[in-house]
């Protein structure tokens, strides 16, 4: 699952635990692990599969002067040219009328727009925004256009909250609700993985420091920066790097392939020093298999879920110090920070931690305590229930009991 889906699952779990009498309905546009895990929580799930044209539609890779014109073409395609999209909106509208929720909570850019088009007129809609609206030329246009159909927006950081206001206007209410994780799953204690075996590498020698990056293969996640930094770590430092994860979404042009990353490692001359595990089902176990967790995003990160996950596992974390990610840690106390894209500084941080086990231990202990205080998932229902009830009051709902979530 992507980070937004993982957070949605945590929300469902905490709502199910806190308000077991509520009826939670989840609508997803693509099959995947979110569906099965939500069902295991007792959430009623509904798969309304996206047509291929909609699944592949996206503008995360649009950058530069041509973005505006390209976005306009995509805008026209979405609203006027795609029979698949019109059909999907009709199906979603029928499903929402059938479920009759008190609140609709959408969890991704496509569903923000589809939800706005399909929702019953009097049902309040909440957009849960996990990324910078301004970075999506198409979605920024659409969200501004349909902002009046949304009762309020949730942002996963103050940085994203400010961006929503700038993109959609001051009239749209925005609340910051930080993401949260299950600190019993992401814990220093638990299973570990054999990263060498998963990567097809011989077992690393005794005393080897394992440093890894756990992320989808989105280009802005900084995989090349991580590899370049590893190439600068002195050869005498007993270290092995790992890239853990794979391409996730269907949007074209926005992701690396593992083949591209492996080729880059060979060009740098570090192919024998880096393992590529591919997708793993237990990210917490992968983190516990590392001494150092690296977050290397080259652009300001809306949140940076892997940062708090690594901290929760008691690992020393190095994070790009920008955007919402900078709100999650105190540099030098709970994690080390580096400027996004700064290869030399990232290499220096990796080298420093590899050579200083006491510093790794101090960061791990302080980071774990920080996450337990600020980012435990048991905080989510406390934050969200008053928001749900406040928007439902506009409908004069006497007995609030139903939330429909829509993912992707």
Uncertain parts: 60-68
Total DSSP E strands: 13
Query: What is the gyration radius calculated from CA atoms?
Result: 21 Å
Strand line-up in the sheet with most strands? 2-1-13-3-4-5-6
What is the overall silhouette? globular
Helix content: 40-55%
- State the secondary-structure class: alpha/beta
- What's the helix-strand series? HEHEHHHEHEHEHEHEHEHEHEHEEHHHE
Mean pLDDT: 89
* CA(first)-CA(last) distance: 11 Å
Which sheet architecture does the biggest sheet show? 7 strands, parallel
Strand percentage, roughly? 5-15%
- Number of H/I helices: 16
Describe this structure as you would to a colleague:
The protein is of the alpha/beta class and 408 residues long. 42% of the residues lie in helices and 15% in strands. The chain contains 16 helices and 13 strands. The chain has a 7-stranded parallel β-sheet with strand order 2-1-13-3-4-5-6, sandwiched between helices. Strands 9-8-7-10-11-12 form a 6-stranded parallel β-sheet, sandwiched between helices. Helix 6 links the parallel strand 3 and strand 4. Helix 4 packs across helix 7.
